From TrEMBL:
PANTHER family: ALPHA-1,3-GALACTOSYLTRANSFERASE 2, GLYCOSYLTRANSFERASE-RELATED. SUPFAM superfamilies: Nucleotide-diphospho-sugar transferases. It comes from the Eukaryota. It comes from Pongo abelii. Belongs to the glycosyltransferase 6 family. One of its GO terms (molecular function) is metal ion binding. This is Alpha 1,3-galactosyltransferase 2. GO terms for cellular component: Golgi apparatus; membrane; vesicle. It is found in: Membrane.
Length: 317
């Protein structure tokens, strides 16, 4: 009982207890495996104090494990266009969207062709942001949902339909991001792969049996004990247009299954995302989507995206 009580404080009660999780070892890649962890966008990985591979052999990308010049050159040679989708609904539009777009112009695949796709119920309120050469902004109208949970889950339906329109014609890779964050460092083509998942900064040190997967066996998002190696964040995910279709089809189907049975997964679309993401082709370290609440950590050298303060009472009423 004492152990359970201390665990509860650590996970949910006292934020300062969470700093202790940095003492939990992440593990390291076998040296023989590290030579195999390369692709056209990253080259060879070389960082020994953090986990740089998954059990199925996919690379986990940290600062210092790739050559940014190699990644940029490969993206230019392939003449790639990146699509970046973001939903700005309700008060989230005024609160976060302008800073998100401005910092994306500074840091997101700088010098590359980019199309921003902003989904909102108020297209006329989208701020004007100066865009560089080869970068465009598209605004798409979406319906306003009654509950914030429905806003979160409805985006999967929208993202599943989007590749059938101009997004599917214009972009080679599609990045899907939450609006309540901002770029703080270079976010480049080293992140590209057929299907990419983002390690959740709140859970990347946790053992798998502690990860907050859906455990209700009746839900389509349910994961059995021992299933799943990492917890992934729904605030950031991406891949090729074809891979995005497959991911969103899975999530839309799972959400519909649950709704028809009066169920709702604990973490909504993120629970279904984790059910799908058992074997992503590439995984990004928490540096690429970091929570400032944790403060500095030795393994977090250069955060690329930072969470904004969560003002749920103000924004979700």
């Amino acid at each position: 009982l004492l152990a359970l009580g201390l665990l509860g404080l650590f996970l949910y009660g006292l934020p300062k207890f969470r700093h202790l999780e940095a003492l939990i070892p992440m593990g390291v890649c076998p040296s023989a495996t590290m030579f195999l962890l390369r692709d056209n966008f990253t080259g060879a990985l070389a960082r020994s104090e953090v986990l740089t591979c998954t059990p199925w052999g996919a690379p986990i990308i940290w600062d210092g494990t790739f050559d940014p010049d190699v990644a940029k050159q490969e993206a230019r040679q392939q003449n790639l266009t990146m699509g970046l989708t973001v939903f700005a609904v309700g008060r989230y539009l005024e609160k976060y969207l302008e800073r998100f777009l401005e910092t994306a112009e500074q840091h997101f695949t700088a010098g590359q062709s980019v199309v921003y796709y902003v989904f909102t119920e108020r297209p006329g309120s989208v701020p004007c942001v100066a865009l560089g050469p080869g970068r465009r902004l598209r605004v798409e109208r979406v319906a306003r949902e009654r509950r914030w949970q429905d806003v979160s889950m409805a985006r999967m339906r929208t993202l599943h339909a989007a590749p059938g329109g101009r997004l599917g014609r214009e972009a080679h890779f599609v990045f899907c991001m939450d609006v309540d964050q901002h770029f703080s460092g270079t976010f480049g083509p080293e992140a590209l792969a057929e299907l990419v998942a983002q390690l959740h900064s709140w859970h990347y040190h946790w053992p798998s049996w502690l990860l907050p997967f859906e455990r209700d066996a009746h839900s389509a998002a349910a994961m059995a004990w021992g299933e799943g190696d990492f917890c992934y964040h729904a605030a950031v995910f991406w891949g090729s247009v074809a891979a995005l279709r497959g991911l969103t089809a899975h999530c839309v189907g799972g959400l519909a299954w649950d709704r028809a049975r009066g169920l709702e997964a604990r973490w909504h679309d993120e629970s279904h995302l984790n059910k799908f993401f058992l074997l992503p082709a590439k995984v990004l370290s928490p540096e690429f989507c970091w929570s400032p609440d944790f403060g500095p950590r030795a393994e977090i050298r250069r955060p690329r995206l930072l969470w904004a303060p969560k003002e749920y009472r103000l924004l979700r009423d």
